[in-house]
Give the backbone structure.
Amino acid sequence: MITFLSGGTGTPKLLRGMQKVMDRHEIAVIVNTAEDIWISGNHISPDIDTVMYLFAGVLNTETWWGMRNDTFTTHEEATMLGIDEFLTIGDRDRAVHIARGEMLRNGMRLTNITKVLCERYGVRETVLPMTDTEVTTQVKTDLGFIHFQEYWIRAKGQIAIFEVIRSFREPPVATAEALATIAASDAVVIGPSNPITSILPILSCAGIREALQNKPVVAVSPFIGDAPISGPAGALMKAAGYAPGSIGTVNCYNGLVDIFVQDIRDPVEVSQSTRFDTLMIDEEKSIALAQEVLRLVDTIR
Ligand code: FO1
């Protein structure tokens, strides 16, 4: 078994390749939930949904969020009625948010809800939220702190940000399932997701860092130079006090990583890193990187 730490962009592209080269029951993914948000009374967990839809074979791989061939009738009607849905929510996607919101209101743990949803979609892999309690990434702007999704979607990432924080009522604790999965794994792979908004929230859940300490860990850089392969990682790294790039990424994961994979084009030198083509522009590239990561895991486990 291999456990992957994932956000909603980058790592799912690696998982697309992993599905093809591993026994799917041997794949476990601990997913960031710090971008979760309630919208129109329903609960969106974007990163869980992207990973779940990928494994279910229904992910829209043009956008890497939402379902393929979804319709937007409810979103359009709600918007016409004056509801401020700043995320474009598909009808089938919304059904998942409705089901999740309802189960949360009924007191179910997010871990169990995710298990139920994955079963309904025939997912063979294990998908686990990092924690069962609410934690939210917020960024400081000229107008004060706003939800990450407000910054990234409503403001299109176009406003200045000065600080990144995670807010919560109770400090997030890794679930027993997440810790048991890591303990049962041969290795952990930190995928090429945003270090600040995807990976650090997972590493900050109590218990995760200790669990990783004695495990072989392979991490894939999400940067080529100071440009992230996808998403808003650059501005967020700066706002969080890290240099955008592979060195800043390694610093974020301080001391946890045994093998660090950098893109062949990355001009930055990280000591003891290994190089590969990490630009997963199609399934073939995802499979090639997945095979390389498996080879690297074999050298350290
Ligand atoms: N990203 C967008 O850029 N625009 C959207 O309208 C949008 C809607 C959306 C709805 C459901 C969902 O699960 C994700 C959605 N995303 C959208 C992606 C998402 O906001 C972020 O890219 C992820 O949170 C990054 O991890």
Notes: Residues 7-9, 35, 44, 46-47, 49, 65-66, 87-89, 93, 149, 153 surround FO1 (CB under 6 Å). The CA atoms of residues 67 and 267 lie 36 Å apart. The chain is about 40% helix and 20% strand.
